[in-house]
């Protein structure tokens, strides 16, 4: 399992882009984790699934609401990862009004989740293999802090907890 001090695993996530620009075409675009995190401070959080109750009602809204505070504390980007496809993540981004605040990144085949060891087996509940709920502060591609939730919990991966760690 990934831990503080480790480098993020080599993986490619996908991001749905609504507006063409900055070298990105419309639709799903690959995001190389190593390249995208190089030289940046990133507040990264992962959720079991787009449009699920806790994720939509608490997790994403907390990071959207605290965007300005994260930026003021020196965070370059906020990433939300989920084992969903880029089209679902794009629809969820529209629903949650994350544009310009939180990058909604799809880990469609759970490659990143598996490489970090932070998977959640929801087979039998109709959801298959998913990402565990967690947050991490990433500095130049390395994990600076890591907050992993217990099963069914939402206590340590919230925006306030990670923001306090950024400021520390």
Automatic annotation (TrEMBL):
Assigned keywords, A-Z: Antioxidant, Oxidoreductase, Peroxidase, Redox-active center
Domain Thioredoxin: 2-168
Record's keyword annotation contains Oxidoreductase: yes
Tree of life domain: Bacteria
Enzyme nomenclature, EC number: 1.11.1.27
InterPro entries referenced in this protein's UniProt entry, alphabetically: PRX5-like, Redoxin, Thioredoxin-like_sf, Thioredoxin_domain
One of the GO biological process terms: cellular response to oxidative stress
Alphabetized Pfam families for the sequence: Redoxin
GO CC terms, sorted: cytoplasm
KW Oxidoreductase (keyword) present: yes
Active site per the UniProt annotation: 55
GO MF assignments: thioredoxin peroxidase activity
Gene3D superfamilies given in the database record: Glutaredoxin
Catalytic activity annotation: a hydroperoxide + 2 glutathione = an alcohol + glutathione disulfide + H2O
CDD domains: PRX5_like
Record function comment: Thiol-specific peroxidase that catalyzes the reduction of hydrogen peroxide and organic hydroperoxides to water and alcohols, respectively. Plays a role in cell protection against oxidative stress by detoxifying peroxides.
PANTHER family listed in its UniProt record: PEROXIREDOXIN, PEROXIREDOXIN-5, MITOCHONDRIAL
Family from the record: Belongs to the peroxiredoxin family. Prx5 subfamily.
Protein name, per record: Glutathione-dependent peroxiredoxin
């Amino acid at each position: 399992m990934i831990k503080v001090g480790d480098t993020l695993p080599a993986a490619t996530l996908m991001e749905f882009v609504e507006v063409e620009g900055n070298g990105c075409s419309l639709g799903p675009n690959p995001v190389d984790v190593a390249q995208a995190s190089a030289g940046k401070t990133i507040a990264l959080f992962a959720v079991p699934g787009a449009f699920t109750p806790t994720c939509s009602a608490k997790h994403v809204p907390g990071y959207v609401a605290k965007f300005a505070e994260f930026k003021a504390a020196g965070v370059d980007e906020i990433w939300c990862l989920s084992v969903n496809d880029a089209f679902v993540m794009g629809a969820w981004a529209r629903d949650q009004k994350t544009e310009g605040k939180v990058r909604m990144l799809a880990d469609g085949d759970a490659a990143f989740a598996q490489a970090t060891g932070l998977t959640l087996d929801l087979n039998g509940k109709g959801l298959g293999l998913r990402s565990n709920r967690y947050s991490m502060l990433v500095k130049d591609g390395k994990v600076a802090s890591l907050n992993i939730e217990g099963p069914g919990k939402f206590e340590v991966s919230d925006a306030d907890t990670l923001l306090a760690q950024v400021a520390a």
